[in-house]
Structure formats: C-alpha cells, structure tokens
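ok new one. same drill as before - structure tokens go in, u give me an amino acid for every spot. 198 of them this time. try not to just spam alanines like last time pls lmao
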C-alpha cells in the first residue's frame, strides 16, 4: 500500500468534454474508486499523428508541467472500417467539425454491411510511481442509416454497437453505453490499476 497525503487522493481527468467526464464519473462512482475524480479543462497541444497512442502521449507530456497530481487524458477515434478503410480514425475531431455525421452518412450512401469501431486510449501520469501507463478500449459495430437518439455526443447518433444491434449509442443511457463502450473499458482498466496501486 502506497502512503499518500490527502491532497494526493484526487485524480484529474484533463478534458474539455463534459460528456467524457460524465461517463468517467459514472464508472468511478459505481466502482467506489479510492480517488476523487476531478475535471480539469486546460489547453492541451494536439498533434496530427498516425496512431491514437502517439496523440495521447504527446498530449500527456504537454500537460505534465502544469499539474502536480496524478492525472489522465483520453483520446478516442471513430473508424469506419467498411467501406471507408478506417476513415476518419485519427482525423475524427476534424471530420466531425467539418462534414459531421451527415457527411459520413452521405459518404457511406446507405451502404449495406458497414463495419465500424471506436477505440479509446487513456494515458495516465501516476505520480506515486512517477510513471506513464496506457489503458485501451475497443468496441465494434456498424454505421446507422440515419441519425438516431438524443443522448451522448460526437458520432454516437450514427454508431450501432454489435452487442446492442437495435440501438445507436445516442439511444443508450450513460450506464448502458459505459458497460460496453471503448471508453468504459479503458476506464475500468484504469480503475483496476488505481485500486491495485492504492
Ligand atoms: P477526441 O479527440 O478523443 O475528443 O475524439 C475525437 C472525435 O471523436 C471527437 O470529435 C469526439 O466528439 C468523437 N468521439 C470521441 N469519443 C466518442 C464517443 O464515445 N462517442 C461518439 N463520438 C466520440
């Protein structure tokens, strides 16, 4: 058991995305994690790189000098494997801002048999061990024919997970999305680590 001072019992999720934070908080609360999860919205430097891991590591190092506690960041990507060969992937943010979900649906043009997935990578700076650790999550599914659902964010209205084949992510509660999602999985791995190393 690592001995920690009281102020070190907080862990920061560095994100400007309220939805991501709500999803993480839901799992942290349910799993009774021995850390207080706090949101920190500070500017991070984004690079365009080939893999989510490269993006995550660069971002983590850009934030590290600004935070004294343990913290983590999370990077996700939406990959339309068929018929778009993985696009938008690491360009997800840019594509959502430019052509949006509508644009993706137009590109796919009601293609039958699409395959898609989300990947997420959490990079944690864990102060007690002065180390960086990665946790990954993945979920497969397909692209919906149209946008459905009011919940979630980003590509949620057009993603149908294989394990709940009649609903888009945007039609699921935070709890149901977390049980299967890329982010939910990565957060659960992070929590396992935090519990083991407390
Ligand atoms: P980020 O760089 O990790 O914030 O994510 C890249 C893009 O994917 C952003 O436009 C997000 O809105 C979107 N995104 C990330 N995670 C999810 C998710 O769980 N559902 C839907 N869209 C997401």
């Amino acid at each position: 058991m690592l001995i920690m001072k009281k102020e070190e019992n907080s862990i920061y999720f560095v994100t400007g995305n309220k939805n991501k934070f709500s999803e993480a908080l839901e799992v942290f609360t349910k799993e009774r994690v021995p850390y207080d999860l706090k949101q920190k919205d500070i500017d991070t430097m984004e690079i365009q790189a080939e893999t989510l891991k490269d993006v995550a590591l660069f971002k983590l190092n850009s934030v590290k000098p600004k935070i004294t506690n343990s913290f983590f960041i999370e990077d996700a990507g939406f990959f339309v494997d068929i018929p778009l060969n993985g696009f938008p992937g690491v360009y997800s943010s840019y594509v959502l801002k430019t052509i949006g979900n509508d644009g993706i649906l137009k590109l796919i043009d009601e293609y039958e048999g699409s395959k898609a997935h989300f990947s997420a990578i959490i990079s944690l700076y864990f102060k007690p061990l002065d180390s960086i650790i990665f946790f990954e999550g993945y979920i497969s599914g397909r692209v919906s024919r149209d946008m459905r659902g009011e919940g979630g964010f980003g590509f949620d209205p057009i993603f149908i997970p294989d394990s709940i084949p009649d609903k888009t992510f945007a039609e699921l509660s935070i709890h149901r999305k977390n049980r299967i999602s890329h982010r939910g999985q990565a957060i659960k791995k992070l929590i396992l680590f935090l519990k083991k190393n407390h």
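The mean pLDDT is 94. and btw Residues 79 and 85 are 8 Å apart (CA to CA).
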